[in-house]
Amino acid sequence: MPTRPASSPSPDGQDARRPRSRNPSTWTVEDVVWFVKDADPQALGPHVELFRKHEIDGNALLLLKSDMIMKYLGLKLGPALKLCYHIDKLKQAKF
């Protein structure tokens, strides 16, 4: 019986992998891309390329604030607030 690969193709042709570590401070840019897509595929999924372009890894993700997300990543207020909500949940999680 074949096993499923650890990654699955994403709509943009890149592989998205679940982060190996639950600790976001150790995440790579691709781990962050997976997290953003998984957190809210409809609202945040279309913006994942920005995280690659701006080299947002786990440490950078934890430092993001809504004003930075809107100014530098160009997200509108709604998606920026949704991302901040998911980042706050991530910070509160025990890893």
From TrEMBL:
Superkingdom of origin organism: Eukaryota
Localization of this protein: Nucleus
Molecular function GO terms recorded: chromatin binding; histone binding
Bias type Polar residues, positions: 1-11
One Pfam family linked to the record: SAM_1
Residue numbers spanned by region Disordered: 1-24
Record carries keyword Transcription regulation: yes
Entry protein name: SAM domain-containing protein
SUPFAM superfamilies from the UniProt entry: SAM/Pointed domain
Source species of the chain: Diceros bicornis minor (South-central black rhinoceros)
Family: Belongs to the SCM family.
GO CC field: nucleus
Residues covered by the SAM domain: 24-93
Single GO biological process annotation from the record: negative regulation of DNA-templated transcription
Key words, A-Z: Nucleus, Repressor, Transcription, Transcription regulation
